[in-house]
């Protein structure tokens, strides 16, 4: 036995939860490794991590970039949190669960533990819903959930709800009830303007436990395997490399870093491992699929005095079913601010998003250097149905932008241009103006051993490597119809319970 019973790599949306839940058993010694900094004193938390009104995209970021499509578009940033709390510490705090069908789809190919009926208790357990009390919602979980009341909505967000009503969409009583659809304020995990990350909600109450060690600013080079099982974790801290003995390792470094660590550990496509000179531990389709939510935007100029960079970026959304007929396969979200034009004017936007994507991208691994980034190829809209639905979403968004309700708060649409608002012109605009919803997942998916894409089984156990688990958004077989932070916390809850009780 090593010094620790469990080593968790990555203190993000899943890893912080797992470490906190497993360490509830005082007999289990848990080490939580984080590449970024840790801020144990909540009063000293940097402002970019406190401010829930916008993403933090610089100070605590991995610096990833991605290629949106194969249409010769330049790479653009893909923000991912590098800090305790991970991306839950830097995001916009949208607390959606997705559809019951999403999880039943995960279960269907041989992952019955992930059916909606088995995931719902974990969703309930993780939250305290401050607005809705019924059998679908928790009352005493670590993560507070609330929705902006009408009087707290900024002008564009309030106008958006009114515009949805004027176009005949239904008002939604609860975006986290999978039977509902329509427009309403988002459920959000923020409290008095503070982003309620897993670092605050899970690690803060766990820090006093003598059996939990948090080791920040430590980069994981690889997991060490011998004769088909884990024996340790090779890490680098302040330029010094060492190996930590470990019999059980949970990889929760996120959908970009978890696959990269797997490959450096000899778990990945044989062709890639041979090309990089890495000894093959297990031939596995790591990075073969990369799911995400493609989004485009109608850009608006707000009327003077009605928008500024201190407002909440997102407060409301419309979920609807496209003409393709997959329930709630689309979202449209107003963005209170986007950027300034060259003339210094503030821009706002309304963004349609494909939530039930059919197309996917991939990760490519081009170096065995532990600090090298994988190439992230999103391949957005290369699936015809994704393109069709996003173009349809832009048409609806343009109609919303022209309603009297939106025109009360925004003077004009600056993009797409008038010659790009229908037909092939709109298709071309969407092809060139679509980017990531910042929800990468599915890069080390779960599935039975005969699934050629499966890297782990339904309990996160790496196929062919004893003692190694993957537990984060990487294991999602498909992307849920929701921002993935709350689903990833749910994954952490389930693994935390299983590992605490030695059920897996």
What layout of secondary structure does this protein have?
Blueprint: E1 6-9, H1 15-22, E2 30-33, H2 47-50, E3 65-67, E4 76-77, H3 100-107, H4 116-126, E5 127-129, E6 143-147, H5 155-166, E7 182-185, E8 187-188, E9 190-191, E10 194-195, H6 198-206, E11 212-215, E12 218-226, E13 229-237, E14 240-245, E15 249-251, H7 254-264, E16 267-268, H8 270-276, E17 282-283, E18 294-295, E19 298-302, E20 316-320, E21 330-335, E22 348-354, E23 362-364, E24 375-377, H9 384-401, H10 404-407, E25 410-415, H11 423-432, E26 435-436, E27 468-470, H12 485-500
Parallel strand pairs: 1-2, 1-15, 2-11, 3-24, 5-6, 15-27, 16-17
Antiparallel strand pairs: 3-4, 6-8, 7-20, 9-10, 12-13, 13-14, 18-26, 19-22, 19-25, 20-21, 21-22, 23-24
Helix pairs in contact: 1-6, 1-12, 4-12, 9-11
